[in-house]
Design a protein that fits this description.
The complex is a heterodimer of chains A (113) and B (111).
Chain A: E1 4-7, E2 10-13, E3 19-25, E4 31-37, E5 43-51, E6 54-57, E7 64-66, E8 76-78, E9 87-94, E10 103-104, E11 108-112
Chain B: E1 9-13, E2 18-23, E3 32-38, E4 45-50, E5 55-56, E6 61-64, E7 70-75, E8 84-91, E9 105-110
Parallel strand pairs in B: 1-9
Antiparallel strand pairs in B: 2-7, 3-4, 3-8, 5-6, 6-7, 8-9
Classes of the chains: A mainly beta (113), B mainly beta (111).
């Protein structure tokens, strides 16, 4: 299993541009999450999904959108990028079973200038 | 806000046990204690979790006090590769398994 994969690893955006961060998991997990992590801080939840077709807002959803058309994929869309969105973005997934530790991708480092 | 309190930083000598404390005095009866670590901006990695009893796996041991208001993660023989930020999190499976992350403890393992 590849686990959770994220692309791209790095990206530089200009203010006002848009992009999609890709996240794919091959563990057939129902739950998927998007976090952002600013320097020296803990992770903040942006959006999450409990299954295909179901998404909900986390702590810091403004400026982002998500979709979940399949179990495997959970892309994060940034519209009109702003410098405040400069951060490292992590995608994670977990099972619906009894043991529900989250599995994380390697992250996408995004800079908006 | 995170429901746990951890020291900001700790040091440990290589080969010695690292004991990382966590306070969670407001923990509910159905909330588990989870530990994750993050090595140098990589994706966080699950370590161990527990509800009431002490737990041990190949990575670490978790000691939970009888009143469940605090816990200690023990890395029995710390190596340089254990240098990381360690996060203690309480989680309720009914809350869509969402994790609320604090700032964690930055552990430096020294040669």
């Amino acid at each position: 299993n590849a686990g959770v994969t994220q692309t791209p690893k790095f990206r530089i955006l200009k203010i006002g541009q848009s992009m999609t961060l890709q996240c794919t998991q091959d563990m057939n997990h129902n739950y998927m999450y998007w976090y952002r992590q600013d320097p020296g801080m803990g992770l903040k939840l942006i959006y999450y999904s409990v299954g295909a077709g179901i998404t909900d807002k986390g702590e810091v959803p403004n400026g982002y959108n998500v979709s979940r058309s399949t179990t495997e994929d959970f892309p994060l869309r940034l519209e009109l990028a702003a410098p405040s969105q400069t951060s490292v973005y992590f995608c994670a997934s977990t099972t619906a079973g009894e043991s529900y530790e989250q599995y994380f991708g390697p992250g996408t480092r995004l800079t908006v200038t | 806000d995170a429901k746990t309190t951890q020291p900001t930083s700790m040091d440990c000598a290589e080969g010695r046990a690292a004991n990382l404390p966590c306070n969670h005095s407001a923990i509910s009866g159905n909330e588990y204690v989870y530990w994750y670590r993050q090595i140098h901006s990589q994706g966080p990695q699950y370590i161990i979790h527990g509800l009431k009893n002490n737990e041990t796996n190949e990575m670490a041991s978790l000691i939970i006090t009888e009143d469940r208001k605090s816990s200690t993660l023990i890395l029995p023989h710390a190596t340089l590769r254990d240098t990381a930020v360690y996060y203690c999190i309480v989680q309720n499976a009914g809350n869509n398994r969402k994790l609320i992350w604090g700032l964690g403890t930055s552990l430096a393992v020294n040669p």
